[in-house]
Specification:
5-stranded mixed β-sheet, 24% helix, globular, alpha+beta, single chain, 31% strand, Conserved Hypothetical Protein Mth637, Chain: A
C-alpha cells in the first residue's frame, strides 16, 4: 500500500503574535506564525506548525511552491485529504480567513 500524499494551499501571516491555524481561506487555509519572513524562518515555522498540528514528522511536510510569498503550496506525505481537513478544522481558531478577496 502506497502512502497518501496531499497538497494544501496556505495563506501565511508571518510575524504574528502567536502561531495558529486560523481557518479556511478560499480554497486553502490561513495560518499565522510568529517567525519573521527573513532567511526562511517563517517557512520553517510553517512546516513545524503544520507537522505539529497534523501529528506527522517534519520530514512529511514540504513547501513545494511559494517559498518567498505568503501564498504557499505544501505537500503532506502519509495523510489523505479527508484526514488533513478534519485535523485542521478541529485545530482552527475560527473562520477569520473565510473572506476570499479574489475577484
Amino acid at each position: 500500500m502506497s502512502a497518501a500524499t496531499t497538497r494544501l494551499r496556505l495563506r501565511v501571516s508571518p510575524g504574528s503574535g502567536r502561531a495558529e491555524i486560523v481557518g479556511r481561506h478560499g480554497d486553502g487555509w490561513k495560518v499565522r506564525v510568529t517567525a519573521p519572513p527573513e532567511h526562511g524562518r517563517a517557512n520553517d515555522a510553517v512546516v513545524r506548525l503544520v507537522a505539529d498540528t497534523l501529528a506527522i514528522p517534519l520530514a512529511s511536510v514540504t513547501i513545494v511552491s511559494g517559498h518567498g510569498a505568503r501564498e504557499k503550496i505544501i505537500e503532506l506525505s502519509g495523510l489523505g485529504p479527508g484526514l488533513v481537513e478534519r485535523r485542521l478544522a478541529s485545530a482552527s481558531t475560527g473562520d477569520h480567513g473565510r473572506k476570499d478577496r479574489r475577484s
